[in-house]
Specification:
Chain lengths: 220, 117
């Protein structure tokens, strides 16, 4: 007997993700799913952003990591509320992990919740975690062909942060080329080149966060 | 290796469908995945075979079908499928615009059909 099914294989993940999205909407929390390959600078960027926006917003972080709590300790040092998820080797976070983590946090005052995903350009792109936006960091040392090699993550992202621009003199990375590739697969992507290390270029990214927090509070 | 999670999700849905249809044995599963979804079909096969061992699903054939990428041109709204391997710059077949197309299909991940007895 043949049975037509036509169901989204990740429907269970999407269902919880939608429940989370509704909860975050009611609390007017802007949720950012931050993704990149390992070492592209997710934690370094968060340290800078959490520090520079601390007087404007209350921010919390869910930290996904394979094994260690190194990153969570760096985040906690900024004074932000942080909750660590160890995936025990799992290559991505999913919505049920975020549901459990969010239940353990005090999010009443939070304006922005950052979900720092496991370092990986492939797997996290398939699993939504209740976020408003996916934000991908690509560092210039990784090469400007990455949007071509990993199209899904760039197709799904609202913002592309091109990090480590202080290293541009030492690498063959063409900012226009990388931006063009990303835009060819995603017409709405916003691109901000910056250096989390020196702080150069952070302001346009922070302005974007300010605008989106404002929008989120208006939409409640 | 997120194919393991995908296989787990797939198996859960197949089991629900089998219960609803009073099926005792799974013969075949057909799924489709978009060309730019991050799926490696061979890895999904391995995960599916491993997870169904010694269950009523064991031995079922998993058929995977790739769905082509289809985009809509930002400039002239023509819908077209970029050539295989032509992902870097997707030139519109109608007006020649290169950037900023909207993805219409090619990201999906669907359980299409099962065959049971």
């Amino acid at each position: 007997m043949q049975i037509k099914v036509l169901r989204n294989i990740l429907e269970a993940n999407d269902r919880i993700s939608n429940q989370l999205r509704e909860m975050f909407r009611q609390k007017a929390i802007l949720v950012i799913n931050l993704m990149s390959s390992p070492g592209a600078g997710k934690t370094s960027l968060l340290e800078k952003t959490l520090d520079q926006l601390r007087d404007e917003f209350s921010m919390s972080v869910i930290e996904g990591d394979l094994q260690t709590s190194n990153d969570a300790e760096r985040i906690a040092a900024t004074g932000a509320q942080v909750l660590q998820i160890n995936t025990g080797g799992g290559c991505h976070l999913d919505s049920s992990m975020i549901q459990e983590a969010a239940g353990k946090m005090d999010l009443e005052q939070t304006d922005i919740l950052f979900v720092e995903n496991v370092g990986n350009l492939v797997c996290p792109a398939e699993f939504s975690v209740g976020e408003d936006y996916k934000v991908t960091i690509l560092s210039v040392v990784e090469g400007d062909d990455k949007p071509e090699k990993y199209p899904l993550i760039f197709a799904e992202s609202r913002v592309l942060l091109l990090n480590k621009t202080d290293l541009l003199p030492y690498v063959d990375f063409d900012l226009d080329k990388a931006s063009g590739f990303a835009r060819s697969i995603n017409k709405n992507i916003e691109i901000f080149p910056l250096s989390a290390r020196t702080g150069d270029g952070l302001e346009p990214w922070h302005d974007w966060l300010r605008k989106e927090v404002h929008r989120k509070k208006q939409d409640r | 290796m997120h194919e393991m999670s995908i296989a787990q999700n797939l198996i859960r849905i197949v089991e629900q469908e089998m219960v609803q249809n009073n099926a005792s044995r799974l013969l075949r599963v057909k799924i489709s995945y978009g060309r730019i979804s991050a799926i490696v079909p061979e890895a999904l096969q391995t995960a599916f075979q491993a997870l169904t061992r010694q269950t009523p699903l064991e031995g079922a054939v998993l058929e995977t079908r790739e769905v082509p990428l289809k985009v809509r041109c930002r400039e002239c709204a023509t819908e077209f499928s970029p050539q295989e391997r032509d992902l870097l710059i997707m030139t519109c077949t109608s007006c020649g615009a290169e950037f900023g197309h909207e993805v219409i299909s090619g990201k999906e991940l669907l359980l299409e059909e099962i065959e049971v007895e």
